[in-house]
Amino acid sequence: MTETMVRLDEVEKLYGAVRALWPTSLEIQKGEFVTLLGPSGSGKTTILNLISGSIGATCGAIWIGNRDVTKLPPNRRELGMVFQNYALMPHMTVFENIAFPLRVRKRSEADIRKRVDEVLEVVSLAGYGERKPKELSGGQQQRIAIARCLVYDPDLILMDEPLGALDKKLRDQLQLEIKRIHKTLGVTLLYVTHDQSEALVLSDRICLMNGGRIEQLGTPDDLYFRPRTIFAADFLGESNIIDASLEADGGSAKISTAGGLVVEGVPTDTKAASAKIMIRPESFTVDTGDGFARNGVQGVVEDTTLTGGVIDIRLRLKDGSLISVRQLTRRDFRSIQHGQQLSVSVKPSDVVILQ
Ligand code: ADP
Ligand code: MG
């Protein structure tokens, strides 16, 4: 049985004539990790702020658990928030920073001590209570901000680009930490990022935003392997997006392109005669035998780039267009030369027909 933690019901946000969010509906289940992903200005922070109550909705209703919170002030919504800038109070110790939400709630001193120690443990900073924030690294400060939000056990935590100010190595480390905390505590997490790999690593579901609307909502697998639109295919991962002709054949189609790519048996129920298709570079396989595979294309090698474990090959097709092919490096790929003929094949199920 799933239980809804957050529900947006046709929620819209206007700033004068600027529509930050089109009427949007969204449900997040209890215990889920959902990421709002999208380019800058796409409405991610707006959704978070509407849920936290720091801005009011122009239209629509917002539910947290079984409460309609649309008109409730932020402090009565009982949720935790973590921002990009840690927002710790610099004159207070780490202990007092974390204890603050409990003092506001008038908990006993013994209670506070016990609980702060517990959450310091959760964020792997046991023993750091007496330091001041400035005596900690950026990553440690962000963990304190997370601890401060965990300390009063909210059912729902909102995080707005919490790792945006950290360098890559720390970011990777804290990503794993946040994932572990989510798993251990079973809390519901709504997380904002513009970083696709972060979203893929962390999320149960990704809500891809574009221009103040939800472009696609689904599991990381859905978004990566089954993007519905050019925007989604382009935003996550690398993709070859190609114009194709389609011949429908009951539940599947034969697709062909001006560059000579032909694939039979692509699963689809579309009846359209043409569409854009998407193929990930790593979905191609370089044919090493001399026969030309049935589902694939032949081209001339434009260039190859070896980056450690993978090799990127760009292939120029007969219509002059280029496709990108990515393979795990193998010694025999070292002999692939600029100007040589190469054929690549693709599984019908790896061809995605876009809307
Ligand atoms: P994101 O977090 O995805 O980068 P935001 O949700 O912050 O995007 O913003 C969505 C849109 O709303 C943007 O076009 C932004 O310029 C606009 N916007 C956000 N806040 C305000 C505001 N206070 N006044 C006017 N426009 C705003
Ligand atoms: Mg934002």
CATH top-level class of the largest domain: Alpha Beta
Give me the oligomer status: single chain
Number of helices: 8
Radius of gyration: 25 Å
- Strand % is 35-45%
Number of domains: 2
Distinct ligands, ions and cofactors found in the model: adenosine-5'-diphosphate, magnesium ion
Output the CATH homologous superfamily of the largest domain. P-loop containing nucleotide triphosphate hydrolases
Please explain how this structure is put together:
- By secondary structure, the protein is of the alpha+beta class.
- It has two domains: 4-234, Rossmann fold (3-Layer(aba) Sandwich); 238-353, OB fold (Dihydrolipoamide Acetyltransferase, E2P) (Beta Barrel), CATH 2.40.50.100.
- It contains eight helices and 20 strands.
- It has helices at residues 44-52, 94-104, 109-122, 138-150, 168-185, 196-202, 220-225, 230-235, and strands at 4-15, 18-29, 33-37, 59-64, 67-68, 80-82, 156-160, 188-193, 205-210, 213-218, 240-248, 252-256, 262-267, 274-279, 284-286, 296-307, 310-316, 322-328, 341-346, 352-353.
- A six-stranded mixed sheet has the order 6-7-8-3-9-10, with helices on both faces. Strands 13-12-11-14-20 form a five-stranded antiparallel sheet. It has a five-stranded antiparallel sheet with strand order 15-19-16-17-18, with no helix packed on it.
- A hairpin with a 5-residue loop joins strand 12 and strand 13.
- The longest helix has 18 residues, at 168-185.
- It is elongated, with a radius of gyration of 25 Å.
- The two termini are 33 Å apart.
- The model has no long low-confidence stretch (mean pLDDT 93).
- The structure holds adenosine-5'-diphosphate (ADP) and magnesium ion (MG).
- Residues 15, 18, 20, 38, 40-46 line the site of adenosine-5'-diphosphate (ADP).
